[in-house]
Amino acid sequence: MEETVRVALDAMGGDNAPAEMVKGALEAVNARENIKVFLVGREEELKACLAGQTYPEGRLVVVPATEVITTEEAPVMAIRRKKDSSIVVAQTMVKRGEADAFISAGSTGAILVGGQLVVGRIRGVERPPLATIIPTAKGVSLLVDSGANVDARASHLVQFARMGSIYMEHVIGINKPRVAIVNVGVEEEKGNALVKETFPLLKACEDLNFTGSIEAREIPHGGADVIVAEGFTGNVILKLYEGLASALVGKIKEGMMSSFRSKMGALLVKPALKKTLKEFDATEYGGAPMLGLNGLVVKTHGNATAKEVRNTIFQCMTFKEQKINDKIQGLFAENVKKPEK
Question: Is the pLDDT of residue 313 over 50?
């Protein structure tokens, strides 16, 4: 029998909370037998969402939390002051071993701060990055860091690459994933000071399949499996990626509805187009995990719907089954200095 994966879901976070959070949790527990979800948030609101719903008894549990952290609040102060917020209560469950993973569509800043202050970093990890799966012409790539650390040192980027490589190999199933650093050209001598310092360090890592620099235009074509950048550059790439995809889909639909002839053509290509667009739908792949913490913390889009919540819960199952945290701990154990006798 498969081991049950316990997920603490911030049911109050995001634009569509709590309704879509609850709906996604219901879909997950009804689809898979080895999932238990803790809905963390305002008890009365969550029970109202569950009223009349059918789900396995004992595998969907409401955990009361009276406070909510908003996106307008300063993350550090909010985490320290709002001890009974849905984010802090849910992350504390992960810290105590009562849950295997935490998911939220709420305040990114609060999630990142809570991940470090509440859940804590794996010993040896300097900066936990956000790792986002992005669709490409060849499948998917991992963008790391996609926004957790807007400033970073070369040693941080090397750690991002090593953790990202583990994730892509064991969660996505890519053998010896190609690792590349975002740059303004492919020549080794190009780039800013950070890239120039990081490049030879990545090149020297025997455990990485480092392929060199990658220009942003090659990312959608699947030029590498692990895309390494500091959080500022990574987040800009991610937001442009999402915005351009949305704009293109809108223009395609507009063009197909522009005339009678185009509408007839749309009927013919609809099945193939639907399949293609699904492959480029980021919500199909779940959320962005913070790599390098003592427990799994996953950030989903602020406008996440039930489908993304459900798929993120499934993503947590793979993360646990493949023992990603154990592999990351093993990776950094050799770099942790032993105390002197």
Answer: yes
